[in-house]
Task: structure prediction
Amino acid sequence: MRIEQHPILEFRRGRRITFTFDGRPIEAYEGETIAAALHAAGVRVLSRTRSGAPRGLFCAIGKCSSCLMTVDGIPNVKTCVTPVREGMVVQSQRGPGRLNPDFRPREREVRELRAEAVVVGAGPAGLAATRVLLRHGIKPIVFDENPHLGGQLIKQTHKFFGSRAERAGVRGFSIAEELLSEVEGEAEVLRQARVLGLYFEDGKRVLAVAHTDRLLLVEAEEIIVATGAEERFLLFPGNHLPGVYGAGAVQTLMNVYGVVPGKRALMVGAGNVGLIVSYQLLQAGVEVEAVVEAMPEIGGYHVHAAKIRRLGIPILTRHTVVRALGGERVEGAVIAQVDEKLSPIPGTEREVSVDLVCLATGLNPSTRLLEQAGARMAYVPELGGRVPLHTPHMETTLPGIYVAGDCAGIGEASTAMLEGELAALSLLSRRGLELGGEMEATRKSLEKLRLGPFGARPRAGKEKVFALMKGGSGG
Ligand SMILES: Cc1cc2nc3c(=O)[nH]c(=O)nc-3n(C[C@H](O)[C@H](O)[C@H](O)COP(=O)(O)OP(=O)(O)OC[C@H]3O[C@@H](n4cnc5c(N)ncnc54)[C@H](O)[C@@H]3O)c2cc1C
Ligand code: FES
Result:
């Protein structure tokens, strides 16, 4: 299942190591996650529900809990973001895992820290914010829960659309490398550092961070939250089967770890993500049966659609997936035409032979931390769901807490970077730093970027958010 040759990527694998899965030795490479190594070894069923239904990988970025396993005696470990180690003992579990009463955990270190500024998330929004803070003499601590930094960018092998000033025409992973090179070594950047809690204690802003084996309690003067987004699930019989993946998970497996997710795919969704990931599947040597899209029109750029059509992949508009077939993993799927109400039309069902169903049906902002901290929220469909209210300068309703990127409303990497810069500039201006016209210039660049046809929806969403923020409503 490992990709040996790729037209764009070169996989530099780490040292060969061995771990055990349910008592069986598995070979892996240092630097890859447990779930990626198991996929490479052909293992799809990672655990089971209490009733015995198989569970497999879905998001591959630590957001959904579909990959929980018991690792070295500790239950409920997210194996999609936990790197393998020599001699590790990995076990599947049935339902929520429980600690064995004889298990003696290693004592966990609890460290208390203070920070001038904290950035949560090292995707394009968080890294762009960090870069601005550094430029103005502030060294933030940056936390990211993934073992690899750069957010969604690290798996984007295509040349980016968007604004030239925001690196359009450059491949996503190269933009991540550029941003990281400006930040690493200057700011303190901690990977595998999951921010679990954001709360106020005696009026102070505190973050609780699980960093490998330590718990960090960080008192921060100011915080920028740039936690990105999580994939939407789709309801259909068989959607629980291993082999039904979010598009981001498919990208992570292929483009970060060099592991193919299957042999033949059905792509659900013809927005930019569905079209781009279909092309990336083909580049990795995976066949694509078809792209199905429930709407009458393709949602993504026509240039991406033309590319995959040229390779003989049909894009079936007004079609959806009706069910995934199989007992232990996906062995096929049924697709059908849909009517105006998006309901499948009886008699149009057709079985397709695939071992992988890839869902590219949209993203929801990842806002858990802000909700927990008490930020005022609103449901704004144009921005992908519930979002924290914020000003045009990315201040939330919580003083000293800013937001940027997809967690403030689903957009693009180019807008995420500008929002990150704006959030950092707001933080600096709150401290009374003289910024000249930098803040207004950045805000104008962001507005300009949203003037294009793909910017109309997020623009309308942001206007709603700003109006609600001004009017003091939301909930
Ligand atoms: C297939 C595909 C193609 C795309 N193509 C383009 C394109 O051509 N042009 C373009 O402009 N955009 C494109 N995008 C969109 C772009 O990638 C995203 O809009 C952008 O990455 C959002 O940036 P972000 O920093 O807000 O979030 P992310 O990139 O998702 O980064 C968020 C980071 O936060 C971390 N995190 C989350 N929660 C926590 C926590 N609790 N603790 C610690 N860390 C946490 C995550 O690990 C992650 O690294 C594409 C997206 C996809 C999926
Ligand atoms: S949390 Fe690991 S697959 Fe979603």
Observations:
- Residues 61, 120-126, 143-146, 151-153, 156, 160-162, 194-195, 226-229, 248, 272-273, 276-277, 366, 369, 405-406, 411-414, 416 surround flavin-adenine dinucleotide (ligand 1) (CB under 6 Å).
- The chain has three domains: 16-91, 110-230+364-471, 244-363.
